[in-house]
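An example makes the point: we print one protein in full, the chain in one-letter code, the fold tokenised, without further comment:
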Amino acid sequence: MQTQLPKPELQDDQGLWMEKRPVLARLYMDDGTVLPVTLFLAPHASGRSGPQTVIDLYDEKDPMLRCRTTSGEFLIVGKQTVAAIGVSPTRHDELGFRRPIAAQIIMAGGHQIDGELLVNGPPGRRVSDLLNEAEPWLCARNGDTRMWLRKSRILTVHPDD
């Protein structure tokens, strides 16, 4: 004889709903394409205080990144195929960065970034020190765009010393 479990009652989950902030971004892919998308960031980061950043979203456990195309279509992107993420900077992105280092960076997929690496350490740090740190991301500025570069996808860096 098989015992039937009672059906769970559906409850209103509005208490779990969190309004997310849309952020226009460009995903620089390993295959050389650039995907203009909208990412959705939570008002609070899960692992620290403050709003969720693009890197917080990327570093979540899920291997896939959910976003929308500029035409409004739902899109799922494999995180491991993203070489860099470009967004318009916000005040939050500027915190902690003390000095820029002009550099030309070539990423997987042939993406060339002519801009500045943004360093949050003491003066005199070498670019090679930044690249060899355990942190998986490096922040750069390319014109009006804040670039988050995956270190594992950086091919070359030519600093303008």
Remarks:
- Helices lie at 54-58, 91-94, 127-132.
- The mean pLDDT is 84.
- The chain is about 10% helix and 45% strand.
- Strands lie at 21-29, 34-41, 64-69, 74-78, 82-87, 99-107, 112-119, 137-142, 145-150, 154-159.
